Amino acid sequence: MWKQAKRIGLVAAAGLMVVPLAGNAGTAKAATLAKNQTFKMMVPSELTTMDNSKMIDIYAATVLNNTNEGLYRLTSKNKAVPALATSVVKSTNNGLEYTFHLRHSKWSNGDPVTAKDFVYSWQRTVNPKTASQYAFLFEGIKNATAIADGKKQPSELGVKAVDDYTLQVTMEKPVPYFDLLMANPTFYPQNQKVVEKYGSKYGTTSAKQVYNGPFKLTKWNGTSLKWTLVKNKDYWDKSKVKLNKIEYQAVKDPSTALNLYQSKDLDDVTLSSEMAKQSANNKDKVIRKMASTFYLEYNQKKVKAFQNKKIRQAISLTVDRQKLAKNVLADGSTAAKGYVPDGLANDPKNGKDFASEAQGATEKAAVDYNMKKAKKLWAEGKKEVGIKKLNVELMGDDTDASKKILEYLQNGMEKLPGLKVTNQNLPFKTRLSRSESGKFDMVMTAWNGDFGDPITFMDLLTSTNSYNNGKWSNASYDKDVSASKNENAANPDARWQNLLDAENTLMSDEGVAPIYQKNEFHLVNSKVKGIVYHQTGASYDYKTAYIAK
Description:
Layout: E1 38-43, H1 58-67, E2 72-74, E3 80-82, E4 97-101, H2 115-126, H3 144-148, E5 159-163, E6 166-170, H4 178-181, H5 192-198, E7 215-218, E8 226-231, E9 245-250, H6 254-262, E10 268-271, H7 273-278, E11 285-298, H8 309-317, H9 321-329, E12 334-335, H10 354-358, H11 361-366, H12 371-385, E13 390-397, H13 400-413, E14 419-426, H14 428-437, E15 442-448, H15 455-458, H16 475-485, H17 492-509, E16 513-524, E17 528-529, E18 546-547
Parallel strand pairs: 1-9, 13-14, 13-15
Antiparallel strand pairs: 2-3, 4-6, 5-6, 7-8, 8-9, 10-16, 11-15, 11-16, 12-16, 17-18
């Protein structure tokens, strides 16, 4: 098992990656390219790291996806296609071995990218000393779990360089979504010479990293709110890269973002609440559906009252999710059906969407709004716990949208007699740090799918997962998730049922309270053509973008 003590737990404000749910990529055919191939876009938060062993959020993953590359990349339809691998590899030995042949490519410092760079990177990530939050993704590769538990050395991981351009991976068990994982930045190669040169400073600025992808990161000192990607002349597929430059700017206030867009200082902005309402009829509007669930996490270790199921249920029932999505967010987001978002994955037998198939009576009740029932359960829960009142802090990010959401949740929760909620809006990095160390009562957090399979969500809330900061634990849930990854890994129907059962257990026990499925409201410069708007495993992929005259 993956031991909590072996890794630091973090839950990202926007989890690592967003699986594409719908692509609207343009085409570069018959286009006239502008001389100034510069695309200017905003992100709602600062950049955290360029170390792919330690990244935990979508903003870092976005930059890593465009500055580095792994064996595969994902298409807009969530299909793995070759990147550094010369072809899509089929497993052998009953799904227990993969052999990848690598194309010849370079790092931005001129070093060749070899199979040894993958071996070093993967061993470093699973090493408990690295404290990677994504080491759990390696489960299934030979000895990965034992290494995480400190029982084996990182050098014993089931990966080896047969020669400079042949990589062999040995599995302990079949992993149905292995090809999708190979497009995840966690599995990207690393240049050992550069990592060892900078030590603990590796990936903390644009200069303390090397790049093998379509762009190179520049002008990031570790805290700057602006940074730039410039075209990488050494990228093996550089002929497909039309942009010369992508200029990023962290903008937390939607009104500021709208002003920057209107003054043509940004080509792509994300708006929320009032700014989104004001721009509802703008011809430049683009709604991007995301595999993202925002949810309340209760710290059951710090606040003993949250160990009571009725207390958790009562709080969840105070949230009118439909009104929140329509009136507060107003950005195309929708009320959560459950923990796993709508549109992520389909039943292998009948093609039904997982979220819809899981939403039976129990699941609907878990995301319902019912103040009368909430007050009844609240009274019963307080009596069982032996308290008359409860004072808690609700933690979230310091963005405009997050502040409005927390205020809405606070107003509903405080209708429960004796419950006092104090909102705490913190900068992104601070909020992550406090989630990591368990310094919260309740936190409004989120997860974005790493790949198109329900396990990317279900795995997080198992008892020993490092992302389970609230410390919710349920033996039945753990058993079903484990079965889906082990004894039923090669049985699609039985595996699917395991995941449905786990979702039902989670919602029945109100382990977390799903609030809404996040969609993004964008304004995109109408003169910008062909930007690849689909999200390819690590947010937006701009490799084939261009700007027409």
